[in-house]
Write a structure and sequence with these properties.
Layout lengths: L14 E4 L6 E4 L4 E4 L13 H15 L7 E6 L6 E7 L5 H18 L6 E4 L5 E6 L13 E8 L3 H20 L6 E8 L5 E8 L5 H19 L2 E7 L3 E7 L33
Helix pairs in contact: 1-2, 3-4
This protein binds 2-acetamido-2-deoxy-beta-D-glucopyranose (8 copies).
């Protein structure tokens, strides 16, 4: 189920590993991570095929969209076997323009590192955003693989106590994030550590997940923390549907009061100004 802890190293610049459960190959660097053909040995698409064109159209539509300002994109394009599905997710503290820039950059990198793949996923540096596409329906489906984890190699000041604080914090954030709505499921927070330090945490699910699925995805991440990050001052576990990170005395997210407000609903009628005779005196 879980990848071995030897993957837990920020120092290793490039690792190629096989995940036992799937045939996918996770490639990651300090900057970004990606997986081409994450679930199967699918036949590649041919250059300039309908699938290829649909994929280009889809990713162009996604990365040029300026209406969405809550960091979650779900688009599909094409018919039957050539239909392509995609999801884009930005870390909950990214402002809309930074989010778009991140997804656009991810699109460029993803299409160059995974050419001709019918399915692929890309996480940008520090999971600022994730972009994935597939030839199957991926919206609303909780996916916990492929995953990766890494830790901050320093040992924490007081190992056992910090681990307890980390667990308490991440549990709390998990239930808060899972209660989010269909636009954003994200929570950040901090707790005082055993000495004078502060432990910061961030958890996020793709908001298409149900509260239960978000909880169970993040619960898997939390279970993996001991094997990847026990006694470390920081660590992260990342899956297609959810991710989790903590750091000691390192505020790694923008502490915003609340996510950006939702856009005005296109369905709400414009204000009725006709027949308004109430004039100021
Ligand atoms: C698909 O193409 C990649 C190179 O882009 C190659 O490594 C892989 O073996 C191909 N997969 C199949 C199933 O042909
Ligand atoms: C794909 O289409 C582009 C634009 O029409 C063309 O320049 C390119 O040569 C084509 N590539 C292949 C492999 O057919
Ligand atoms: C996306 O990136 C491409 C290439 O860098 C650039 O030409 C394009 O303007 C960008 N699109 C947006 C919407 O930022
Ligand atoms: C895309 O790749 C370039 C070169 O490796 C890197 O500098 C950039 O940060 C990447 N963009 C994203 C969004 O990951
Ligand atoms: C999480 O922490 C907040 C603030 O410390 C607290 O109000 C809340 O009750 C906690 N929730 C859970 C489920 O632990
Ligand atoms: C996904 O996209 C479809 C089609 O545009 C839309 O109807 C649906 O509400 C979207 N779902 C979410 C969770 O954004
Ligand atoms: C009339 O104008 C007032 C003040 O601008 C506004 O609050 C109200 O909603 C308007 N009524 C209608 C029917 O548009
Ligand atoms: C706008 O308000 C006026 C007066 O209140 C009403 O007669 C009219 O039907 C309303 N128009 C619409 C489109 O709701």
């Amino acid at each position: 189920m879980f990848i071995p802890s030897l993957l837990c190293s920020l120092q290793i610049f490039l690792i190629i590993t096989f995940i036992a459960q799937t045939t996918a190959v996770v490639v990651y660097t300090n900057d970004y991570h990606y997986v081409c053909d994450q679930s199967n040995n699918k036949a590649n698409y041919t250059t300039n095929s309908t699938y290829h064109k649909n994929l280009n159209t889809l990713l162009t539509t996604l990365t040029s969209n300026t209406d969405i300002n809550y960091g979650f994109y779900n688009f599909s394009f094409g018919e039957n076997n050539d239909r392509v599905y995609s999801i884009g997710l930005c870390r909950g503290d990214l402002l809309p323009n930074d989010c778009r820039r991140c997804l656009n950059g991810s699109r460029e990198n993803l299409t160059s590192v995974c050419p001709n793949q019918r399915e692929a996923i890309f996480w940008s540096e520090n999971e600022r955003c994730m972009l994935r596409y597939s030839d199957r329906l991926i919206l609303g489906v909780m996916e916990d693989a492929p995953d990766f984890s890494s830790n901050n190699l320093d040992d924490s000041v007081d190992v056992s106590l910090s681990d307890e604080v980390v667990t308490t914090l991440l549990n709390n954030l998990t239930s808060r994030a899972a209660k989010g709505d269909s636009r954003i499921k994200y929570a950040v927070g901090s707790l005082p550590g055993p000495q004078y330090e502060v432990i910061y945490g961030l958890v996020q699910c793709t908001p298409d997940l149900s509260e239960n699925d978000c909880n169970s995805c993040l619960a898997e991440n939390l279970q993996q923390i001991p094997s990847c990050c026990k006694g470390k001052i920081g660590g992260r576990v990342v899956r297609p549907s959810c991710n989790m990170r903590f750091e000691t005395s390192f505020l790694f997210y923008e502490p915003r009061a609340s996510p950006p407000p939702p856009p005005p609903s296109p369905l709400s009628p414009p204000p009725n100004t006709t027949g308004n005779n109430t004039k100021p005196c």
